[in-house]
Structure formats: C-alpha cells, structure tokens
Amino acid sequence: MNTNTIDEIDKYITNHSEKLKTLLWELENLCIKGRDDEHIPIYLTKWRIKKKESAYLKTKRKNINYTNIKDYGGLRLICLFEKDIYKVHEYLLKILNDDKHKYSLQKCKSINGEIDKNEKLHDILKDNGGKELIVGDKDNDYSTTGYKSIHYIIKKEDYFLEVQLRTLVQDVWGELEHSLAYKKGILNPHTKKNFTILSKYLQNIDDSFLHLRNITDRERNGVEFTDRNKVPPKNVFEYEECLKPTKHFTNNNTHDSYEDYWNHIMKPERDNYEEWVQTAIDKYNIFKNELSNETDDIICNIKYWLDMEDAFLKFCKFDYDGALAIYTDIIREHNNRYCLLYRIGEIYFIQGETVKALEHFDKAEILLDNNNTDFYNHFKIKLRLAYTYWSLGTDYIQISKKLITDAEKIYNIHKNNDKFTDRDGQKLANNACWYYLEYYTTHINDINNIDENYGNAEEKFKKLKTYLDQSKCSRNCYDTAAWFHYQAYLKTNDIKELEKAYNFCLELLSGNKKNFTSFNARSTKITMHNIEEITTKFNEVFNS
What we know:
- The protein is an alpha/beta fold and 544 residues long.
- It is 62% helix and 8% strand.
C-alpha cells in the first residue's frame, strides 16, 4: 500500500497546474480549429485539472505513487453521434503525429466498445502511427456498469495528459456514474444492476439518434437535387444595361454572332440539355472568332462580359469549381454587379452552402431594390430568394410570403412589357399560391387567423386557376392545385374538393405530367408525398 499523503498531492498539483493548463489550452484550441476550419464533428470540448481528493483516492485504488498518475490534466471531446467518433479519432491522431506539435501518443484504449467499432478504431489507429488499440473494460470496480469511452494517454515534454472521446449520451452516463458511484465506494448489487440497465437504455438512445442522423443525412443530400453534380443554372440573369456588349461592336458579323448566341442562351426550353449546352459553346466560339476582328479597345471594354460568359458556360457544364474560380477573380474588381452575385449564389445553393448563397442573393437584391430600371431581374431575384427561404423550412415561410408579394407587385406594374412571358406569370401564380398555402397549413393551430390565412391562399389559387387549363401548364401547377383542393376538403369536409384533388393527382400521373425525373428532388418528393396522402384519403372515403 502506498503512503502518499493528500498534502503531498495537493502541493504537486499546485506546482504543475499552470503548465498543465497551458498544454490543455493548446490541445483544445487545435481541436476547436479542426471543428471550425475542417468541419470535424466535435460538439463540445472541456478540460479539467484533477482534484487532490480524486488523485489521492486513485493512489489508494490502484496502489501507485501520485507521480505515476497520467491524467492530472484531462481533455474531453464530445460528439453528437456515434459515427462522428471515427472522424474525430482520425483528426486527433493526426494532431498527435504531427511533429510540429511535439506530442507523443503513449496508448489508446477503447473501453466497453463493440467489436466492429473497435476494429474500425484500430484500423484508423494503425494508419496513423501504427500503434495497437487496447481493448478492455474500465479498470475499476464498476466496469460492468456500462461506462463507454475512448481514452488517449499522450505526453508532451515531461507531462502526461488524458483525452477522452465519447458521444453526448455517453458523457451524460459518465457524469451520472461519476456523481453517483465512481470512486465513491462499493456499489450495492441493486444499484450496480440499475446502472447496467441504464447503460443499455442510453445505448438505445444513442443508436436511435444515429438512426435519425442517417435519415437526415439522406434527406439533406437529396433535399434539393437528384444529383448535385449535374444541376444547371436555374435562371439566366440579364446583364446590367450599361454592360451589354452590343454597343461596342463595329462589325455586323460580330453583332449577328452575338445575337445568335445570346438568343440561344435565353431560350427557356432546354429539352435536350446536353445538346443545348454544346450548341451554346459552338455559338460562343463563333462569336469570339468574329470578335477577334474588333479592336483591342473594344475587346478590353467587354472583358467583364467575356469572363462572365466563360464562367457561365463552365457552370452549364457542371464545372462549379472552375466557374467559381473565375467569378472569384471577377468579384475582386466588380463586387457590386448583381448578375455576378446572383450566379455565385446559384452555385453555392447547388452545393448546399445555403448561407453563402443567401449572402450573395441578398446583396443582389439590395442592388436591385435601388435600381428603378431593371425590373425583370428585380422580379427574378425576389422569386429566387422566396424559394431559397422556403427550402430552409417552415420557420422561414413568412419571409417567402413577403418576397413573393414583392415579386407580384413588380410583375403587376410591368407585366405588359415584352420581357415578361406567360411562363413568368404562371410561375409567379403557382409559387404565390404554394407559399400562402404552406403558411396556412403550418399555422393551422392559429385559430384566431385560420380563416384569414385560408382566404389568402384561396385568393392566390384563383389566380393560379387561370393557367390550369393551358396545354403548357407545368406539373408544379397541378401539384399545387391538388394540394389546395385537398386542404379545402380538410377544412370544409366538402367531398367535391377531395374529388378535385384526386383528379389533379390522376393528371399528374398520366400523359406528360407523370415525368418525375427532375433535377429538383425536393419538389419531386413533395409531389409524390402529396399524391400518396390524397389518394389514400380518397380511397378511404369512397371505398368505405
């Protein structure tokens, strides 16, 4: 039995605590940097200096000298989900194996880990330093109560630190065990058994959260697009009037080749997308060949436009990184061009960087809000932002409503202008109805305003109805109509409304309305969900 006194331990901790704190801060900051810069999934970090009472009991429990304790300084890394542990494990090992940090990994131990988990941890460990993973229960009287964690003993200079890696649920268990039992004395059998049961419950919770995480990941990966690597530009913003290149040309052939290219770019129909892109590239090359006959001054004056089109065609070919590289160079000199900002926002949105997309869309909107002449792009940015906010979830539907109302005001003032097409009116009417309907359904418990909210959606649907009989009415319009009539049925219990909703579903599933192969996976999924709910209710009502 060792004869260490608590006063000796207290003096030792006092003499070394500042150095230990410095080492812990350093390591914690490296982990935080990984979280912030490299998206390492560390949810929380916390560290502590071991208390003298805890160290004193450890010398007794393990029969060791206090100078042999390796966890006076302890850092804990907490993940939300079990699957995140592997990425943090790998990142931590890379830190420890980086010579510039001067750490030395002494041992890595998995406590009460499952076999497949330990195998994966071991493989990562072997690939990052070649050490063996130690597998075993926690070395104390309560090893069977269910404690789970991964422990790393590391050394820097003459000091040892312990790092613990675990999930949030495992940390909750560990804190409870530490508070109620660990190092406090022998547990009676009943308490020990209940700790074991609790551990199993918490493991089920951990597994359930991981299952929900996996579902969410699948949802997020496909929430907007079927394949994020093959999404074309959604809309083509027209350039600011002062930047259009035609006024610079002196050669008719240059002018004609430009018009040929630009008219092709602005075509709304792109049934064969690959053919459309290749034709655009061919026409652009013809134009640039004709442009070579112009003076260097003219070419210099339209350099912005040329750079923008070079990037745009890369965008069309799904070379997002190549397009962004060009746009990034352009924006250094032209940070107040709404066309440029819009296109950058489009790429970020496709890549799932919604905040960056909104940042650029917002800047474009501000520029257009202060522009009294470019009403068509002003209209487009309002539509785009309304959709972007809607994609963030129902918490943002009020913003989508406001933006679509702004778009309606712009359209109503300028709808007779040649720039606006019937396609613009149809898209506006459909989106306005959908957002107001979404607002109604997500505020269904707002009893004081439910009739007003429904009435607003109904007014928007009346505008949409004017397009529903047109031969080129989009699938989205049919989807919105089906969902509106279904909500009308739920509100009024009018069976005719359910029949109308069902008939629109049949239209969606027949003829040219059944093609659900779309870049927009979110829209397709919502459509299929709506059809399933409506047809199920229809069969219940009419077959009962």
